[in-house]
Structures are given as C-alpha cells and as structure tokens.
Automatic annotation (TrEMBL):
Record-annotated EF-hand domain positions: 562-589
Classification lineage: Eukaryota, Fungi, Dikarya, Basidiomycota, Agaricomycotina
InterPro entries: EF_Hand_1_Ca_BS (IPR018247), EF_hand_dom (IPR002048)
MF annotations from Gene Ontology: calcium ion binding
PROSITE patterns, A to Z: EF_HAND_1, EF_HAND_2
Native source species: Steccherinum ochraceum
Protein name per Swiss-Prot or TrEMBL: EF-hand domain-containing protein
Compositional bias of kind Basic and acidic residues: 809-818
Length: 1351
C-alpha cells in the first residue's frame, strides 16, 4: 500500500528563510541582493541552530523508512533507536522579561525558545509493511503536517507571520526580531562554553605553531605569545583540572587566537589607514595582555592550592575574582580585532563596517561575566557541592567561619570527602587555628603571596620558551635550504649520524636495536680506518676522532641504556627528531665526541646516579641524627618532613641496581656532564627559591627531557635534600615558621608525583604492547621505578628481620656524623643563606600577655547634652555568646561603649577578639514607648568581616539579644544569642547560665553564684597560694580538654563536656587570649603522628599479622580507654578475618613520632623488652652474662612502690618499671631528693642543660648525685606489661631445683633492693651534709655580726 508524504509548503519555507534573512541583515548591517534571498544564510543559521533536527521521516535508496534520521527496524518488536541530544540551558527570565508585546502568543514561545524535541509516540510493533504500521500508529498523519521543528523555529515562524502582516518591516525587526536574536544567542552560550572545554586541547599544536610564526614576523607580540604558551604549558601538566579554571583558559585561548590573523600582515612596520604602524599599535596592548594572562594564571594557581573547605566558605569571593578575567579577555580580544582591522581592511568604508562589527559594549561584557557566574555553578565538583550543602545547613558561610565547633565538624566532613587533605603535599593535620587563619587571609594578600613563587616558575618557562622560539625562527629561516636537500637524512644535524643514516638508506625511523648495533659496527670500522691511516701515513680527517675507551661500552651488554637514551618515547623505534634531540642535549662547552656522549648514557649515567644515591642516604642519616637536637618547636615539622619524604625517596634509591656497575671507568671522564646538569638544575631551583608548588614546576625545573624523569630525578632530590639539611642545621638554634619544613616536603612530594605519573605512563605503554610490566620495570633505568610499580616486597612483614633500609637507631648515630652537610659528589658545597627560607622565622615569644596590661581605651564620662538612653548603656559590658544547648560557645567577650559624635543616640568603641583580632564598634540605641532600651551595633574586623548584634536591656539590667554574621538578624533565622552585664569580668564568669535560671532550684544557683563571687574576690585580693593553685589547675585542665575537643585524643564524654563549658565560662578575655596562645604553642610542640593522632600513641605489637603486605599498617590508639576496643577486619581491612585485635594484645607506647625507617628495629626491641620484663617478674635471671639487661627490682622506678600489674617497662632503659599512676602523670624521680616531680617539658632530657632535679632542689642549688645521662624520660618507648600469657602445657608446679633457683633469685633481688636503699641513703646523707654546711655558714655569719656589734 503506497502512501503519499506531503512536504512543507513553499510558503512555510519562504517564511522561515525570510526571517533568517532579516536576522542576517541585522547582524551583518549590510544590504542583501536579490540573489541572496533565495537561500538562507547558512553560516548564520548554523550559529543560531548548531544542531538542526533531521526530517522526521524520509526515504533512502533501499526504500527502508527512517525515523529521526535513523533507519527503522522492519521485523519483530523494536523500539525506535533515537539519539539523545545535548541541549543548551533555557534562558533565564531576566533575559527576556523586557520583550515587547508579541502577537499570537509568541511571548510564551520565546520564553522557551531552547530547542526541545517533541515526544513522538513510538509504535509498539512494526508490521511487514513499515509505512502501513506507521500509518496505523498515527505517525504518518503527524509527518504530513511537515517536518518537526524546534520551539525556536516555531517562534521564528510566528515572527515571520507578524512581519508579513506589518506595514513597517524595519520597525518589526527592531520590535520583535532583535530581542529574540539576543535570547537565541544567550541560549546557545552555555553550550558553546561546554563545547569549548571539550575541544580545548584539540588544536593547540596548530595554534602554538601559528603563534610562533606570528612572533617570527611580528616580534612586538612575542611577550603576549610567550606568556600564553607559558601558562598553557603549566596547565597541560596538571593531572587534575577544575573545569572552572579550564573555562578561563578557553576564553584566554579565544582571545589569543585573534593574533593568528597577523600572518596576513607580512610587514612588521605596516602602516594602517590612520597612519600608525602596527608595531606601535600592538606594543602596549601585547604587554598589557601578557600581564593579564600572568595574573589570571597566578589566580588560578592560588585557587587550585586552596583546601576544599576554604573553597566552599570563600567560594563566592574567589569565583567573582576569577570571572573578572572573562571580561578582561573579552576586552583584549576586541582591542586586538580593532587594531588588526586598521591594517587588514584596505578601504575606509570597509574598515568602518568591520569596526562596527567587532565593537563590544560594557553591557555585553557584563552579560558574559554574569553568564560565566551561572555556568560556574554547573562546574562545581561533587565533593565541593556536598560540602557546600552541609555549610548551608549549618548557616551562612560567615557564621560558620567564626564558629569553631561548626568548623571542626565540617573539617571532619572535609576529610571524608577529600582524604588527600591529611596525606597531601606538605599538609600537616590542619588545626582549627590554621583553618581560621587561611579563611581570614585576604584574597589580594593570598595572590601576592603566591606570586612570589609563581613569578620564578613563570620566568623559567619564559626563558625556556624564548630558547625554543629562537630555535624555531632559526629553523624557519633555513627552511628553503632544507627543502632543496636530497632526502630525510639531511634533516639530521650531526654530520656523523647523518652519514650513517644515508648509508643505511633509512627513512624516517629505524628499530632501536638495529640502530645501536649499526653504531657499534660503524665505530669499529672507524678504529680500523684510523689504524690503517697511521700505518700508511694518511692525514686524519675531522671525522676520525675516536675515544677508544668509550667504544667498549657501545656494545651488546650496554644495549638497553643506549636504546633508552635515544628512544625517548620507548616505542622501540628511533626517529630523526629523537636523534637530533639526543645530539642537541650534549653541551657544546664539554667538547665531547659522539662516542663519549653515547658512553656516558651507557655507563656514566648509572655511575653518577649511584653516587647521588649514596649521598641521599648520607643526608637522611644526618637528618635523623639531628632530629633530637632541634628546638622543641621545630620537632613537629621535622618529623612530618621525614615521614613524608623518606619512604618515597628510598623506594627509588633502593630499587636502583648497583651490583653490576663497571669499575674500569675513570670518574673524571663522566664528571663534567654531571657537574653541568647539577649546576643547571640548581640555578633553576634558585630561580623559584626551591619552592616546587605544582607538577608543572617539576618539569620546568628539569628543563630539557623533562618527560624522561629517570634522567634527573635523583639529582633533583639530592639538591632539594641538601638545602633542607641546611634548614635542619639552622633549626637547632633558631625557631622556624611552622610551615617551613612541611613546605619543603611538599616540593619533594611533587617530584614523587611526577615519578608516579611516569610509572603510570610506562605501565600503560607496556600493557598496550603486551609486555610483562614487572619485568620491564626491573630493566628500564636500572630498575629505578621497580618499587614505584609494586612496593609490597619492600614493606611486607617479611622484611622485618632484615630490613634493606638503614641500621638501628643507635648504630646510625655512631656511623654518621652530625656536622655540616655532605658535599656534592660533583660540585662544591653551597650554603643556603637564611634569606632563602620560604617563610620568615617567628620573632619573640609566642605567648600573648597583652590582655593583662592596662587598657589603652580609657572611659570618659558622656557629655551633659547626651541623651539619657545613651548614657544608660555607655561603659564596659562583659558577657557570653551562647545557644540553647551550649553556654557559652566561646570565651567571654568584653565591649566598651563610648559616646559617638555621629548622633545623640550613636556610640562606638574598639576591642580585641579572643583570637587576637581587633575590631571597631558602631551602634545606635533608642527607647520604645514601654521604656525598653533597644540596642543595635556591629563589630568591624579587618579580616573576618562584620559581626552584628541586636538586643534590648531586660529588667535585670542585662543586655540580651541575638547575634549573627549576617546583617539580617531575627529569632526565626538565628539561634545564636548573647548576654552582657555591666559587672566585672570575675563576677560575670561566675554567673549561672540563663537556662539554669529558668529551671527549678534557681535560688540554689543564685546562692552558689553569690558565695563563688565572694570567695573568688577574697582569694584574688589576698594572693594566697590556693588562688594561684586553682588558676594553674584551671589552665592545665582547660588546655587538656580543649586539645581533645578540637585536635587530638578521645572525644569528650558528657561529664567532661560539661566540665569544659564551666572552665570556658571561668576565663576572662585576657585569660582566653593567653591560654589560646599557650594552646597553639603546645600544638607545635607535641608529636603529630600520621592518621590524625597527636601526643602519645599506643601501637599494637601483635598486629598486623605476619602475612600483612605492609608493616606500616598498624593498629593505633590515643589512650588506654580507647585501647580497650576490639578491632576487626571490618574496621581495618589489613587484619585477617577472624583474627581481630583484642585487649589481650601487647601494646607499645611512644611519645615521639615513629618513622617508618625505625619501625622494624623498634618493634623488635619492644618485643625483646617485653620478654625481659616478664622474665624479671617471674624471677628469671638475665639471658646474657654480659649484663645487657641488669637485674631490676620489681618496684616502680619513680615512686618506689610495689608493682601492681598491669604496668609499664622502658624499652631504652636498663630494666625500668613504671607504675600506671606515675606514667599517667609523667612523673620522674628527682636525682637529688628522690621525690617524684612532673616532667616539665615534652622533650625533657634531650637537652644537655636538663638537670633531672625537682624545682625545690634546683632553687636550692642541690646537685644531682646520679649521672643524668642514665635517667629515664617519657620520650623513651614503653611496653605494656600485664599477666604473662601462659602457653598450653606449662607446668603448674615447681620442682626442688626450680624452687632453689627461685630462692636464689629472691636473694639477688634483695641485694638489689639493698643497693638501691644505700644509694638513696647516700643521697639523703649528701643533703644533710649540705644543709649542715649551710647552717654552719649562717652561724658563722651571725657570730661575726654579733662580734662587730659588741666591738
């Protein structure tokens, strides 16, 4: 059955095309000829409708029907195969809200002018005749109405009707068509941005080559071209790209592409129609564009380094700044187009018309910027979007930024969403203080700070690109000569290799093995020719220079390294460009022959790399030895540095094969190039101040052959380590900025990242070529990347008995000196001056005591003419911020209101937040008809912003109300409240919470408040010991709980949280400021272990199991309470299923950071010490007659009390037991009076000036009677001793011999006790003698004075 398919009417098509013709006329601003009217403007049509829909149904040659351009199925039940299309976003209402009134309901159509495919019912089945089935389904009837059109096309058809009926077509165009054109352009802009991102890198090689050509012709634009190429090279090396940043690079690329048109202006001094040469016209514009490009790249670089939570809380500020560059680039693009028009257009009329076409208005730029702000919302990464939602649930960003409890909670969520934050480059476990400081950092300050590093990197890129551009210009100038040569071999620059290539008739590439073997045969023939010429007296030619010593290394045993040296991409083929790259890499200043150069890569590189390997190990030995000599405030940074750097470094150095190095090569033959490379990289590091802040910086520092990381990686690591060793030496006597060593670690981590990506690239290459990956890594670069490919053999439990890295801690201190840094194996040592520290060292004490000083703002009485309402609130107000569930949620705040001259009801003042940030007060007050005084004021911080307060004075005289960081304050929106009273800070600290006064028993709270105020005031005025003792107790307990709440340790339970709130309430603003500085200092002192542990660390000695692949996977706890937890395979995947950690396992306690290098040695010693402890408790004699573990008495070494299990046993001391009570209080025994005293500092005992005496003996000058070097301190590791686990089959009774042996042991123990008693009595006798001497001297003085008086 045949079916006729009607086609669209000519009238419809004519109307559709005629409207597009009108649009084209308006856009081009030129008249159309009659010949143009017959066809639509295709270019413009594709711009408005980039994806025109296909005809719904058409026929193909075979007669099969097509639905939506796809062939329909003709048998069986089948759904029509449709293609989903990516549609642009609908224009927002703001785009079309000002449209004029349109006829025939077109207003509604325009509002949805984005192409939206109409749904067409799909037939459930297609019969034998496909068209008949379609007719039954009603599809043919739909098709008869004409091809499906988009809503945008329908809108255009309606406009055509309106235009056709009007008597003023031009007016209709202005009234209807122009606004719709704007809407259509806006609707496609978003899709254009996405399309630009997808094609960002597609034509970059062509663009770069075109820009080089333009720079060759017009040197004036070189500065802009080099700036663009530099920042694009930086971006190309990023492995993780933010689409928001990439969208800016799309705009930058769109701007710089305009310069390609300069190729049509061949004369660099071409004079435009206005009489101005093009060089003068572009000079200032190119310089300004280069600055814009650099500033944009610096802003993107700074933003990319921000942690996730900072991006969320300050995202709008950053996005506004980034989007500003969109407008800047649009403006520069227009200026370039206008400048080019003056030289490309050859008539004034054409110039005016073209200038009108490229003219851009400020409104258009603003629309473009606004569009990007909307598009940025769609580019937010999922993790950032989730964290942003959490912030919105907590309140506005300003409120969150100033609430430490919320910041702590969000920081924990950030760790979950972005695990790299705690293991990332140079990032310590961020404290709340660190986070708040980063949030307060002004955007311009952050950009300027980052520019210090970015400048050096940018200049490095600039210098290298200038060299490449000079090379390109040189090659282009010789292009004609090259084109006249015979074949591909003429492209080879080295004369000798060119002859070989020509003789072998190779084309563009040759197999690597064949190439190297041909070289070997060629050099052998050369030697024979030279011998022959010497015999017959022939004069030698220029090509007859041969380094005979090098020829032995151009042979089969050295085939692999030579192939690697030539074959950069590892493809197995050597190309002409790779040959030229190999010969260009040889510095002309060395004067080496080709054989010498090849021999270097055959054996010389391995020899020099082995030397750098040994130097790196020596530097690490010095660093570990220096660790205990550093100032306490520098220890945390040093520990962080070593844990981050050592493991990744030894995975490279230990994998490098040194067992088959040749011994018959004179080091002087290969020394010059090693010196040259080291000096070149060192200069590059100096240019960036040794601060590698991104992956691209690694490559720009490496310079040439940057993709072949194995060639230079150990040189780069060595130079960075040598500089860091200077910092370690400096840190023995000078405090460092807390981020100094972590930043140094970050530089090395970027190098390790480059190695990781190099391994990934090689792995992918080997897999594509179906090669064994593990075998290949064992051979390439002498196995340098073996452990980066698979590190399990290095860190498995099997290496515990004989680790391939380092010796024991004590042995290393004996083997390696701790003096100046080791000299370079090839260059003299270069000391790093103090000015090359990345951060300025802190000056002065870190404790803030300025709050206790007299206030500088004195209160003056108000003027007599001041309003009574204002007089009632002037003065000092003290109080708290709180919520219904937490009183207070911050320490006490204090305001002093002073009269302002602004009005009779205005007041002002200044103050200081407990975070040490100053603020200004501005506010007003008024009294309502009921006589209630209402107050509204805000605090202006230089960094944190504006903080708002709204409240009133209640009947008790308290100023109460709501507080927020948002100007719109109301009870329904905010739960943060405040209460202020005009009483002293000491009295306010005792005041009960508002909620407690609303409950039953408020009289009891008032009575307790009254008695507490009286007692506190009496003690404060009397200055007795109980007052200071109480303040010390409050300070220590507050800092302890504050550390556990916000940083490290077991979370507070309900009772501890209530206690913490009471302690917080008891602090005055001066106390809060001082204690905060103390807490910050403590955070920089205590050890910071990995996995977020700080302070003491408990580690299970029985986990992980012997089958574990990584011995660094330990089970750790913060204290004994947490240690009473069973950990299963579900919590720690590296535990064996069914073999969990239990409370019966042995524990090791450490109060210093345990580096991976020391872990096997310490665990082995801890297990031995645990066995010794059990033996001593059982009365077993020492295992060694040499007395490695002398017999201790079974009592606490501090308090001398009888031991009660469980207890602790020192791993480093000679059999020292410590009871739980002394250990939990970190008590030591005074070496003079033997009385317990608290260890005063964390690293006490490591300083030679520590006397191991209590405060009383130190004040009296009593010297210790025992050598302090043998004394136990709490930085020593301890093992937990509980009841000895009894093995199955152990005897339950002892025989006669065993009893006699046990009796002998008891006698030995008694002798040991007597010895200790004698030592103790000796100390007491020494004290008595010293006291008697003092009494005798006093009596003599009295007698002499009496005698003088009598005389």
């Amino acid at each position: 059955m045949s079916t006729t398919h009607p086609t669209p009417t000519t009238d419809k098509l004519h109307k559709r095309f005629s409207l597009r013709t009108i649009l084209h006329l308006k856009s081009d601003a030129r008249p159309r000829t009659s010949s143009d009217a017959s066809a639509p403007p295709v270019a413009f049509r594709s711009r408005i409708f980039p994806r025109p829909r296909a005809q719904s149904l058409d026929h193909v040659a075979d007669g099969a029907p097509r639905v939506n351009g796809r062939r329909a199925s003709t048998s069986g039940s089948s759904a029509v195969d449709g293609e989903s299309k990516e549609l642009p976003l609908r224009p927002t209402s703001s785009v079309y809200k000002d449209l004029p009134s349109l006829p025939n309901g077109v207003q509604d159509i325009v509002a949805t002018a984005v192409p939206v495919p109409e749904s067409v019912p799909v037939p459930s089945s297609v019969e034998e005749d496909g068209l008949e089935g379609l007719a039954k389904e009603g599809i043919v009837e739909k098709v008869g109405l004409g091809p499906n059109s988009t809503r945008a096309e329908d809108a255009l058809n309606n406009f055509d009707d309106a235009v056709g009926t009007t008597t003023n077509p031009d007016g209709a165009v202005a009234k209807y068509v122009t606004p719709i054109k704007t809407i259509l352009d806006a609707s496609g802009a978003t899709e254009a941005i996405h399309s630009g991102l997808d094609s960002l890198m597609e034509n970059i090689p062509w663009l770069m080559k075109g820009l080089d050509e333009v720079a060759r012709i017009h040197p004036v634009v070189t500065v802009a071209v080099l700036a663009f190429k530099a920042v694009y090279n930086m971006e190309l090396t990023r492995r993780e790209n933010d689409r928001r940043i990439l969208s800016l690079y799309v705009e930058m690329k769109d701007m710089i592409t305009v310069l390609i048109q300069l190729r049509d202006v061949r004369d660099p001094e071409d004079v435009g129609l206005d009489g101005k040469p093009i060089s003068a016209r572009l000079q200032g514009l190119a310089k300004q564009t280069a600055d814009d490009i650099k500033n944009c790249a610096n802003a993107c670089d700074t933003y990319s380094k921000k942690r996730l939570l900072v991006k969320v809380l300050k995202g709008y500020v950053w996005e506004e700044r980034l989007v500003e560059f969109v407008g800047t680039f649009q403006q520069r693009k227009t200026e370039f187009e206008q400048a080019l028009t003056m030289h490309i257009a050859r008539t004034v009329e054409r110039m005016d018309r073209t200038l009108a076409g490229v003219k851009i208005t400020a409104d258009a730029i603003n629309e473009r910027v606004a569009l990007f702000m909307r598009v940025f919302e769609t580019f937010v990464p999922s993790a950032e979007a989730e964290l942003r939602d959490l912030v919105n649930q907590k309140g506005d960003p300003k409120t969150v930024q100033n609430n430490e409890t919320l910041l702590l909670e969000l920081s924990e969520q950030e760790t979950r969403l972005d695990p790299r934050r705690n293991t990332g480059r140079g990032i310590r476990t961020n404290t709340i203080k660190d986070l708040k400081e980063e949030l307060r950092l002004d955007l311009d300050v952050a950009l300027q700070k980052n520019l210090e590093t970015f400048d050096g990197k940018f200049e490095l890129y600039h210098r290298q690109l200038r060299e490449e551009l000079a090379q390109f210009i040189h090659e282009e100038n010789n292009q004609l000569l090259t084109a006249m040569r015979e074949g591909p071999h003429d492209r080879i620059e080295n004369e000798e290799l060119r002859g070989i290539w020509k003789e072998m008739n190779w084309r563009r590439n040759v197999k690597s093995r064949l190439f190297v073997m041909t070289l070997r045969d060629h050099f052998r023939e050369r030697v024979e020719d030279i011998k022959h010429s010497r015999v017959f007296g022939d004069p030698p030619s220029n090509l007859q220079r041969v380094d005979a010593w090098a020829l032995q290394f151009v042979s089969v045993p050295w085939l692999q390294p030579i192939m690697e040296a030539f074959d950069d991409d590892g493809s197995g083929y050597i190309t002409i460009s790779e040959v030229n790259a190999f010969t260009r890499a040889l510095p002309v200043s060395l004067g080496w022959s080709l054989q010498h150069w090849i021999a270097y890569w055959a054996v010389g590189w391995r020899l020099t790399t082995a030397q750098y390997r040994e130097q790196i190990h020596g530097i690490f030995a010095q660093m570990f030895a220096l660790r205990s000599k550093l100032l306490p405030e520098n220890r945390q940074g040093a520990d962080f540095y070593l844990n981050k750097v050592w493991q990744s470094t030894v995975e490279l150095t230990l994998a490098f094969k040194v067992d088959d190095l040749p011994s018959d090569v004179q080091i002087s033959r290969i020394l010059p190039y090693a010196q040259y490379e080291e000096e070149r990289i060192r200069r590059n590091l100096l240019d960036i101040r040794y601060d590698i802040d991104a992956l691209d910086t690694v490559y720009v520092v490496a310079g040439k052959d940057s993709e072949r990381l194995e060639k230079y990686v150990l040189i780069l690591i060595y130079l960075l380590l040598r500089r860091d060793l200077e910092i370690f030496t400096f840190a023995q006597t000078n405090p460092l900025h807390p981020d100094e060593l972590p930043n140094s670690a970050a530089s090395l981590e970027w190098v390790f990242d480059a190695a990781v990506f190099r391994v990934r690239d090689l792995t992918e290459f080997y897999r594509q070529h179906k090669l064994n990956v593990g075998t290949q890594f064992e051979t390439v670069a002498s196995g340098l990347f073996t452990y980066y490919n698979d590190s399990r053999p290095l860190w498995s439990m099997n290496t515990y008995e004989d680790p391939p890295f380092g010796s024991s801690r004590e042995q290393e201190l004996k083997d390696h000196h701790t003096g100046p840094p080791l000299p370079s194996p090839f260059s003299p040592a270069i000391s790093v001056p103090r000015s090359f520290l990345t951060y300025k060292p802190p000056e002065g004490l870190p404790f803030i005591t300025s709050g206790y000083e007299a206030p500088t703002l004195a209160f003056s009485p108000p003027d007599e003419n001041a309003a009574a309402t204002l007089k009632s609130i002037l003065g000092q107000w003290n109080g708290f911020l709180y919520t219904e569930s937490e009183y207070p949620y911050s320490p006490m705040t204090s305001f002093t209101f002073l009269q302002s001259q602004a009005s009779s009801q205005a007041f002002g003042g200044t103050g200081r937040h407990f975070s040490n940030e100053e603020f200004m007060i501005r506010g007003t007050c008024h009294q309502d008809e009921r006589g209630v005084v209402h107050v509204r004021f805000h605090l202006s911080y230089a960094i944190s912003g504006e903080e708002y307060y709204v409240g009133h004075v209640d009947p008790t005289g308290a100023l109460v109300g709501y507080h927020s960081w948002d100007q719109d304050i109301s009870e329904s929106k905010h739960t943060d409240r405040f209460i202020l009273k005009q009483v002293s800070q000491e009295i306010m600290s005792q005041r009960p919470s508002p909620s407690s006064l609303l409950q039953e028993g408020k009289a009891r709270h008032w009575w307790h408040f009254a008695t507490s105020c009286v007692l506190t005031e009496v003690r404060r005025r009397s200055w007795n010991w109980s007052y200071f003792q109480g303040r010390r107790r409050v300070r220590k307990r507050y800092l302890e709980l504050n550390l556990r709440l916000y940083e490290y340790g077991r979370p507070l339970d309900e009772d501890e949280n209530e206690e913490y709130l009471l302690l917080r309430r008891s602090l005055t603003p001066a106390d809060a400021l001082y204690y905060r500085s103390l807490g910050d200092y403590i955070l920089h002192i205590i050890p910071e272990h990995y996995r977020g542990l700080g302070g003491p660390r408990l580690m299970c000695l029985d986990c992980p199991p012997p089958s574990a692949e990584d011995f660094t996977d330990t089970i750790d706890f913060c204290d004994l309470v947490c240690a009473q937890t069973v950990v299963t395979h579900a919590e720690r995947s590296y535990l064996e299923d069914g073999n969990p950690h239990t409370t019966e396992h042995s524990l090791l306690k450490i109060r210093t950071v345990l580096n991976f290098r020391d872990m096997p040695d310490l665990r082995k010693k801890a297990q031995e010490a645990l066995q010794v402890a059990y033996d001593r408790l059982d009365g077993t004699p020492p295992r060694s007659s040499a007395g490695d573990f002398p017999m201790p008495s079974p009592c606490c070494a501090v308090c001398q009390a009888e031991l009660q299990l469980p207890c602790w046993f020192c791993v480093d001391c000679s059999g020292t037991f410590i009871c739980d009570s002394c250990e939990s209080s970190t008590l030591l025994a005074c070496m003079s009076c033997a009385q317990p005293y608290c260890q005063p500092t964390w690293y006490y005992g490591e300083d030679s000036r520590d006397t191991f005496t209590c405060n009383r003996c130190s004040v009296k000058g009593i010297k210790p009677y025992i050598e302090p070097a043998s004394k136990h301190v709490y930085t020593h590791p301890l093992v937990r001793v509980s009841s000895r686990p009894r093995a199955d089959g152990d005897a339950l009774s002892l025989g006669t011999d065993d009893r006699l042996l046990a009796l002998e042991r008891r006698v030995e123990d008694m002798d040991a006790k007597l010895d200790r008693l004698e030592n103790r009595l000796g100390g007491e006798l020494l004290k008595i003698n010293q006291t008697l001497e003092s009494v005798q001297q006093a009596l003599q003085l009295i007698v002499s004075r009496v005698a003088k008086a009598d005389a």
